[in-house]
Amino acid sequence: MSQASLFLRAFTDEVCRSLANDYQDNYDVVRFGEHPSSPAPSRFSFRQLVRRYLKRRGYHHFLGVTYTFRTAMDFIAPWLDRLERLHSRLADEESKTLLVKIWAFRALGHGKVKLPFNTPELWRGIEAAGKLASTSDFLDAKFNGLRLVRLDLASLEVPVSLYSSPAGAYIQFVLQAYRCQLASGAIEVRAGDCVVDGGGCWGDTALYFARKAGPSGRVFTFEFTPTNLGIMRKNLALNPSLESRVEVVERALWDRSGVSLGYTENGPGTKLAEDKKEAMARTAVTMSIDDLVTEEHLPMIDFIKMDIEGAELTALKGARETMLRFKPRLAVCVYHRLEDFFDIPDYLESLGLNYRFFLRHFSIHAEETVLFACAD
Fold first, then answer.
1. What is the DSSP letter of 42?
2. Fewer C-beta neighbours within 10 Å, C or N terminus of the chain?
3. Mean of pLDDT values over 66-74
4. Alpha carbons 359 and 373: distance in angstroms, whole number
């Protein structure tokens, strides 16, 4: 079978296996609120009357399956050539299988496709983390009504205290969302590394990287919203031995430095707006990774992580010289825009650094897909 047909064959098989599913335990109520329900229609259209007539005669399942299958194939049709190319680029079978699962989930939804991250072990771990939460010490994240509770993770063999959600802390520090395990080792932060943490938010990733980098490591964490910075500084202060390894850069990662871009604060979902016509409540000043290296006289950048709400490709373009010079390991989120699944590896490949690409996913829904890349 040609490489160009492997994704389509695997996707078709996945969709066919999923058509009869009706999962009731595959929706993240913490992230998205109450489980959605389909309201009864107030009146029937002609098409609905025909479907009701055929349903009484046993054709309902056939019609539903046919419609669902066609919907899934229509969803991938505009992207098929690029999906086939990405599938062939990925360096291990886990990544290839995951790519198929993620796009099937995006095409069919939580009722039909369950991602590999949704396991009994995940829920037991989150429950265990929840038992560590303070009942009286918490912060308002100002994001979807979320309260960040104070957690001491020592009993999970993680000597870190912070304000977080139990699920977020467990996924970040125990399951290690920015570590990609491979047969030959792992793509991760190592002792002594200099790390760029793009999208520092509440400081959990900065603390994770600081612990991994050790006393001789450095972490430059980028965050610019006042609420996120306030929570981040509280979390850093709770961990003074790690705080000393972290430098907070109150700028927005971009391809150029010194640009003022608007935004409306929305916790971890805050997005920059390049369109100056769009009314924004606040502005942030940008900085590129290449300029960070120059201004800080950094002899090396070992690891770059980005979760910056769709600005990842732009920020990577501002790290071009850094990547050409140092070939850092990368962990870049590609879930914000469907184009990023393709545009980001295309750009990285254009640099001629012989990066190998791996895909991992750290949620039960469409968010938290990470492209890992390494040149070694």
1. S
2. N
3. 84
4. 9
Single-letter amino acid code for the residue at 31:
R
Is residue 283 a contact partner of residue 317, using CB atoms and an 8 Å limit?
A: no
pLDDT-derived band at 38 (thresholds 50, 70, 90) equals very low
Does 98 share its domain with 228?
Answer: no
Write out pLDDT tens, residues 165-190: 999 999 999 999 999 999 989 999 99
Q: Which helix (H) or strand (E) holds 211?
A: helix 204-213
* Statement to judge: residues 207 and 346 lie in one domain: yes
From 277-286, 294-303, 359-368, the region with the lowest mean pLDDT: 277-286
Q: What tokens appear for 368 in the block?
A: 């938290």
More confidently predicted of 56 and 237: 237
Q: Answer whether 108's CB lies under 8 Å from 68's CB.
A: yes
C-alpha 240/C-alpha 209 separation (Å) is 14
DSSP-derived 3-state class of residue 163 = strand
Query: The whole model's pTM is what?
Result: 0.91
The pair of three-digit structure tokens given for residue 297, joined into one six-digit string = 């006289």
Helix (H) or strand (E) holding 224: none
User: What is the C-alpha to C-alpha distance for residues 268 and 266, in angstroms, rounded to an integer?
Assistant: 6
Tally Cβ neighbours within 10 Å of residue 179: 16
Q: What is the pLDDT of residue 40?
A: 44
Look up the domain containing 338 and give its range: 183-374
